[in-house]
Design a protein that fits this description.
Elements: E1 2-5, H1 9-20, E2 28-31, H2 38-51, E3 59-61, H3 75-78, H4 101-111, E4 116-121, H5 125-133, H6 137-140, E5 141-147, H7 163-167, H8 169-178, E6 182-184, H9 186-189, H10 207-216, H11 221-227, H12 235-244, E7 249-254, E8 256-258, E9 269-271, E10 283-289, H13 291-306
Parallel strand pairs: 1-2, 1-4, 2-3, 4-5, 5-6, 6-10
Antiparallel strand pairs: 7-10, 8-9
Helix pairs in contact: 1-10, 1-12, 1-13, 4-5, 5-8, 12-13
The structure holds beta-D-ribofuranose (BDR) and calcium ion.
Length: 308
């Protein structure tokens, strides 16, 4: 599995969950702009790997900006530099490889042809560029699982649009059109929270415990009240849980498109839930999740770092 990621507090939890599992072979992280500028998300990805002593995982730095629209970030939510907590200063051990993220995705897809799962948990610029470099990418990937969109519910940046799709709508449109993704959107991730009592078990005298605490509490009180949830949504970790255990999600096939030609609808995932277009399905959308299963899986993964 390869993660295209913009850490990001929920990305950080997703990365730890993926790395903890013996049944997921993480071949690398490609970094995207999104929660912060790509220089910052790349530094955060490296710091996360150093924190948990996984400097064996290669990091490939990605595009600095969306394909067409201007860069936007979410440092107001995730913290200055795109992540909360005191992370170690990255060292040469995690220096980004000399290959662009898009090229890295292509190379890994070719090397593991038919076997690679791409978990795209950030704006889709790198994935769209990878498709431009390698038109056979759809055949080379085993599966593409995307955190993005709000097919049947409200967005989180605009009423219609979720952050990853809003940030690079043109990339999202291309990926949805050509790569048959499994979409894990806000419909199911908005309530992908971890049990508040998990915080009690996190050691305060341990850097990993302290970082996880910061990542799990990245929503302020206003945001929790707005969404009516007790703790922050760990959107991206639901993608990892679903890859590790497909029973975590219920999905249905639909015809999907992403709006690019309207400011009002920028990045909106248009899901033909009633077959109104007569167009064939070109992707799947998660419609429900088994949250107990999700929580068990993520909590068990995180515990491995706390009680090795
Ligand atoms: C998505 O946007 C980012 O802020 C999160 O990391 C997640 O990937 C949620 O809308
Ligand atoms: Ca993310």
């Amino acid at each position: 599995m390869l993660l295209d990621t913009d850490p990001g507090c929920d990305d950080a939890v997703a990365i730890l969950a993926a790395l903890a599992r013996d049944d997921l072979d993480v071949v690398g992280l490609s970094t995207a702009h999104g929660n912060a500028a790509v220089d910052d998300t790349t530094a955060n990805a490296r710091a996360i790997l150093e924190l948990v002593d996984r400097t064996d995982i290669p990091v490939a730095k990605g595009a600095t900006r969306p394909l067409t629209v201007d860069l936007r970030t979410s440092t107001d939510i995730h913290g200055p530099g795109g992540i909360r907590g005191d992370l170690p200063e990255p060292t040469a051990a995690t220096a980004p490889i000399d290959t662009h993220a898009a090229q890295f995705i292509v190379e890994q897809a070719r090397e593991h042809a038919g076997d690679l799962t791409l978990a795209a948990i950030a704006p889709l610029t790198n994935v769209a560029l990878a498709l431009a470099l390698e038109p056979d990418l759809p055949d080379l990937l085993d599966e593409l699982v995307v955190m993005g969109g709000a097919a049947f519910s409200q967005g989180n940046v605009t009423p219609l649009s979720e952050a990853n799709f809003h940030t690079d709508p043109h990339a999202a449109a291309r990926v949805v059109q050509d790569l048959s993704p499994t979409i894990v959107g806000l419909d199911v991730t908005r309530t992908a929270t971890l049990p508040p009592n998990l915080l009690d078990s996190l050691p305060r005298d341990d850097p990993i415990g302290r970082s996880i605490r910061e990542w799990l509490t990245y929503y302020d009180a206003d945001r929790l009240a707005k969404y009516g949830i007790e703790s922050a949504a760990i959107h991206d970790a639901l993608v990892i849980a679903a890859i590790a255990d497909p029973a975590v999600l219920e999905t249905n096939a639909y015809h999907l498109e992403v709006a690019t030609d309207s400011d009002l609808a920028r990045g909106a995932l248009v899901c033909d839930g009633q077959g109104l277009t007569d167009a064939p399905p070109n992707g799947s959308v998660a419609t429900d999740a088994d949250y107990d299963r999700f929580r068990d899986l993520v909590v068990n993964s995180l515990e491995q770092y706390l009680h090795p």
